[in-house]
Amino acid sequence: xxxxxxxxxxxxxxxxxxxxxxxxxxxxxxxxxxxxxxxxxxxxxxxxxxxxxxxxxxxxxxxxxxxxxxxxxxxxxxxxxxxxxxxxxxxxxxxxxxxxxxxxxxxxxxxxxxxxxxxxxxxxxxxxxxxxxxxxxxxxxxxxxxxxxxxxxxxxxxxxxxxxxxxxxxxxxxxxxxxxxxxxxxxxxxxxxxxxxxxxxxxxxxxxxxxxxxxxxxxxx
Length: 221
Fold this sequence. Notes:
This protein has helices spanning 3-7, 91-108, 192-199; strands spanning 17-21, 35-42, 46-50, 60-65, 69-79, 82-88, 128-133, 138-146, 150-155, 164-167, 170-178, 181-186. It is mainly β and 221 residues long. A hairpin with a 4-residue loop joins strand 7 and strand 8 (138-146). The longest helix has 18 residues, at 91-108. The two termini are 22 Å apart.
């Protein structure tokens, strides 16, 4: 299904963080690479997902979302930095997901639910940035989350612990490898109010270098 058609369908604008694997993307140990991702629009049949590596139409993949669980599916359309994922599941699970979407939407709109952490990590509104490595090479990356002291990103490249680099205009060093990316500590603490402006540097996200469900209109409310 084209993305534009999905935008005209009944769905819920819900932001949920997760991870996914693409076919034929392996780490040095021969295991499938895991990348971070985040939903932007979801129905019980498909979802738009912001990602660091887009993949190709027809690619089958496995994804996992904290609030939804594990999904199998295939890419039916792509955009810069995101794809449309067709969800493959039983009728019973679709009904359960529909109920869950309604609950999550209400929860995210409830202003009384606050984050009480003193140094809370934030999810910038612009999910894509650029990594500039020590050798001068520049690579697209996906922002998992950030704080005044550092940032977590997911990218096709995996710089090692200790490597100096820049995320957007913020200079730092890799301090930890994550299951779906890297953690970078900034050389100098940043002003959280300016953080999105400093790290948001969008660029075309490279597709993966590797080789439709039909249903009636659905109500997620």
